[in-house]
């Protein structure tokens, strides 16, 4: 399915993998400040808003973002939440927000997680479809800036907003259960284990890395949650841009889905279609794809953000190998 | 520590990760056909031999290979085997081969795994040091071509040569034990599990990828063996060069060591310094490094292989990001 | 902590382990039909009620039952639910039931699970203490007869009543999470595994019983839930009284807590103080203790049940060994 | 299959479970000092020897012991070792011992483990059959007294004698591999875990007993080895006879095989047929059976041990319930 993570060095990084068996056709898409967002349940589009960069499927000039950041440093991503996501009917006493426009609605208006918390408390996430042909994706969301991280889950029993002290998200089960499972892994460590099984018995650490024995390595969402949480929480890197970005791709690489290892139908395999890493401070969107290991990037601040039209870059999906001879 | 793997599509691929807390200084090194190999226990160097390309620490013009292939399609890599590797004293009735020259000794002389099997049966792997300052590394070896794969382990009880039906290798424990452990993982699958726990009880596969629940995800050598074996044995890709190479890096990426997750001394972390993938058919050496996700490559056939001097390329360790704007 | 289970052959069996580091002093206690139950929030005791047999700490002639059955075949047990149990304040529009009298309140009045369901739907479980010196135990309950099984959990967000298709209960986390975790064990089986890891690779089942590899064996409540659920759901036995009772003790024996394996404070160890098995059809209470492996029994129908005074039998805690010579 | 264990308090205890899908018909059998042991490859029976008590299938007045102790405090048991056990042909330069008489050969002649070590060093364990109808069972052996414990494995590559610091044995794989696997469990503990996963992250020990999370609970021989080793090494009990014996049955109870959980053929289930516990100091053989939870006992010193004829007691297999009313 998918995995999202945050990472903080000097700047704040936010990104995700998108795991699926095919792509809907995505582009790195910048929504400039004057692009008119006609939110479904609003009377009029705001005159101006924060610029956004992220990965989107553009449908009829509308950016259906999978993950994005705004120019203020706030990032947001939607991840599959199949079987658990339930959206509300529009109501009259709250601000109704269609599920498909949730990411731009937040990122265009909120400069910080604090502002977003405020907006979330008064909104109603609705099951309004983008169009007849686009049923609502069953998603939950991770929302973060340098100050913290939230998870938003709309379920049968209402809209849940959780503080996320780990800064990672995958898919099912709901976030509180994912966090609860970490209790079971609490004794894992990057350091070698000590013999508490039978003190005095001669046991040996025959390999490095034995302190994390018990960490799962399969591709299910609960196992990816534990694996990426351990990797992220123990990550160490320099704080330069290159070191930070590199480390971020290693964090999400820990839950990479290899073609063949997750068969979703006869001969169909879920893979990590792309992995993104946004420097939320600098407004740069980095990504790799399954077939292109080189990191590509689009910098929102190299564009004129005071325009009205989406700025779109194709995903560079072809492996770019550097031959030294 | 390290992980090695093989992969076969139209061509045959062979590579490894090198995991450690620092680098000795490595170069992609081509040994041309007329480079004089003065093997320690031989009277004279052969006039000519097979050309070799691989990653080596070059010490005094001598290529101490970590992993390499020859122009005939045979590949070989040495991986840490600390606590188990024991080399023999030179003897008079066998062909003595110093441990440090084992890779070039095989690759310079054997065109195929079959020929290598023959040479292995009559040789004696010795504890002869490269120099006073270079004690013998404690290693075991993986040796493969398109026809099959061997593991060679020199231990207290002698030299063991094992057929390797999985085509992967990590570190401790010895190879037969690693293979034995796969018995415990036999019910894992890329497909969703069926409920055999309590037929009739309503259980659900709440996530994709649950068929491999139980696969380990920590960085110890036994866990990496299981994880990479599962990933390799279930890998699916197109058979073009780009698809094959990409898939290979995904296979070894499944056991990537992230900085911080394996602390070997206070503040010192083992990481995947580099990952290699050789097209043994075409003689191309591909690699990435921890800080450079782009795949770099050196093609031995773009060089004059009929010379006498090592051809050396630096490791491109700096991240090469492709900015699209 | 504790484990409860149900088992059905010709008759219906219900029992539990009580795991703790010391005993409060328990007796097998029969409450006859005319024992006056002055329920705390009721105006008067019913004239008569169903007789009950179970393990109780008798405080001032009041039977504080840990687990019990009534003469109609309904059984109920309270198990630790520390950190999750929250009881309500008494309210005016519901039937208030003090937590400490919950078991007799149900068992004295309900002949069947169906009747109990009805009573549960209109009651309010309160935090009323038995006395100043007896704070409310933090418990959840299993309630079962031959027709089915319920779990009752009173938490911060109210009273939850769950159908329990497995018929087992341990402690934390709440029951829905325990059930959810069984999804992760669904591929376990009493039969030998098949090689789906890498079909074609020669893997062997080197031992019997490998189909359940992955089943946990530690003494934590989540692990005991999975272990006892697997054991119960796969249990096979003859349906005679002796065979059924024997099998039942084997089921709960699978999660026996051995002294030394669960240290709760320096030198203090939680152990399985006693294990019970009630034939709910026949009204017989069987039990063993940590130090007495022989099965002891008290049969409620060998007593005059139409009396007013508790009938109490001591726990036979001393090992009764049968010497054959 | 089977599990054996030792336990030391004031006295030394030795016992085993015998797990199988049917019984060959066993009796608690005392071999008195003057019973004539005509060992197959010896010219004559010794005039006298140490008396032995244990569980045996008596075939034509010959005690085929499964497990036994002698009057000097030495105990020995044979456990299934299918696929690994290989016995030698008789040779002329060693003392040949038929596999079926291995237990009496040792126990009748050796007072201590030290003496046994000596005899083992000069013997040859042969594939001599007891009779045409009794092919050699594929076994390995545990041999222990209060001073220590050995494992004896006769394999393709010869007879192996291992010191056993844990004092437990199950079945496959060979003992060194079983011991090696304990390295993977070294961080398990009877105490609650500490959060080393992500110090600072609020994780909770929501249940007692979480320090041993990762301990396996299935019935395969490798899992039983780890489970019983943990249980035995952490066992605590008083040192009286009753407390010691009770604790011993709890230790082996931790790997009890319940009917239904290990299906060996359609509708056939391996169960723990009996569990034994010998006080090697006092010469008492205690046991329980699958259907009889009471501990039965035979005391060798209540017999005249200076006779020539086997003294046999039937296994009391019928549940003996103590009704208190």
From TrEMBL, chains A, B, C, D:
Residues 2-311 form the Choloylglycine hydrolase/NAAA C-terminal domain. The gene is cbh_1. Pfam families: CBAH. The keyword Lipid metabolism applies. It comes from the Bacteria. GO terms for biological process: lipid metabolic process. It catalyses: cholate + taurine = taurocholate + H2O; taurodeoxycholate + H2O = deoxycholate + taurine. This is choloylglycine hydrolase. GO terms for molecular function: choloylglycine hydrolase activity. InterPro entries: CBAH, CBAH/NAAA_C, Ntn_hydrolases_N, Peptidase_C59. Belongs to the peptidase C59 family. Gene3D superfamilies: Penicillin V Acylase, Chain A (3.60.60.10). CDD domains: Ntn_PVA (cd00542). The keyword Cell wall biogenesis/degradation does not apply. Its EC number is 3.5.1.24. Keywords: Hydrolase, Lipid metabolism. Transmembrane segments: none annotated. The lineage of its organism: Bacteria, Bacillati, Bacillota, Clostridia, Lachnospirales. It is an enzyme of class 3 (hydrolase). Pathway: Lipid metabolism; bile acid biosynthesis.
